[in-house]
Every structure is written in C-alpha cells, then in structure tokens.
Amino acid sequence: MIDVILAGGWLMLPILSCSVVAAAICVERYWSLREELVVPPELLALTLPQLRQVLSDPESREQLHNHSPLGAVLAVLDQCDRDNMENAREAALAGVGHDLETYLTALGIIALISPLLGILGTVVGMIDVFTSVVSASGETAALAGGISTALITTAAGLSIAIPTLIAHRLLLRKVDTLLVMLDETSQRWSMQLCAERADE
Which three-class secondary structure state does DSSP give residue 34? Predict the structure, then answer.
C-alpha cells in the first residue's frame, strides 16, 4: 500500500489529507447530530407551567439557551406579542440550522475537489511519462507502466470523493430532519404559550 501511495507522486499528499479531514468531519457531525443531543427528551417532557417558570427567570432562560439546540429555540419564546414570538422563533431556528450545518460545507468541498486533485495528479504523471518515453526512444513498456502509475491519483481521488459525497448528502438530510423536528416542537410550544396568555 505504501508503494502505491508513493507511486502516485506528491499530489497523493493533499488527496490523503482530504481523506483524513473528511473522516474527522463525518465522525464529529455524526456524534453532534444525534437526536438525543439536538432534541433532548428532558425538554420534550417539560410541562407548560415548567416552561413558563423557566422563561420567567433570566438565569434559567440562559441555562435553557445553552442546554441544546431545542433549548436555544425555546429560550426565545418569552415574547409577549405573538408576532414578535414567531419572528424570534424563526430567527433562532435559522441560527440553530447554521450551527447544525457546521463543517458540512467543507465536507462538500472535499467531495468536489478530491477527484479534481486525482485528475491533476494523472495529468502531471502523464506529462512525466511522455517526457521520459521521448528520452527513452519510445519504449512502449515504459509508457504502459508510467500510465498505470499516473492513474493511481485518479483512483485515489474517486475513492475519497464517492463516500464523502454520500456522507455529505446523508448528513444534510439528517440536519433537515432535525430542523423539522425543532420547528414542529417549538411551534407547538409557542401556540400553547400564546393560547394561555390569551386566556389570561
């Protein structure tokens, strides 16, 4: 394996670096996007009086905000006016969505540039091959061996790009699903709070 990597030339270094970064992002996002961390069961189990009590105390509201993404959205539901509450809820959802998509842009970029780096490595390798073949009086054996070596970077780039692209799409889908859950849960709480305040 080491011999194959070395045969690919210096462009194997950025390709392998992309694979390490992509793997690290996938592991981190998979861990951070677990449903029990984003939408904790203990917050779903809150009653309306408990939520109102938390929202009425600035210190408790700050703790709720820092607790989880769902807590960050629920913490802004202390507005008196329904329109203000809805605007604050949507703004909080947008901020949480941005946080949930952390590093996913980098993952998409890696999926895009990995095959391009591989092709670049192949082009550079082919240039070297044809240069050496010309100086070696056109030996076809040298040409065939050089071409197979030059194609190593393309194979490496594609081998990284394909799973990275799949992981990127799956993680984006996971973020969308979590945002729908956050939206539905926070909307239900805001409607209950508004209904209760209207009855007062």
Answer: coil
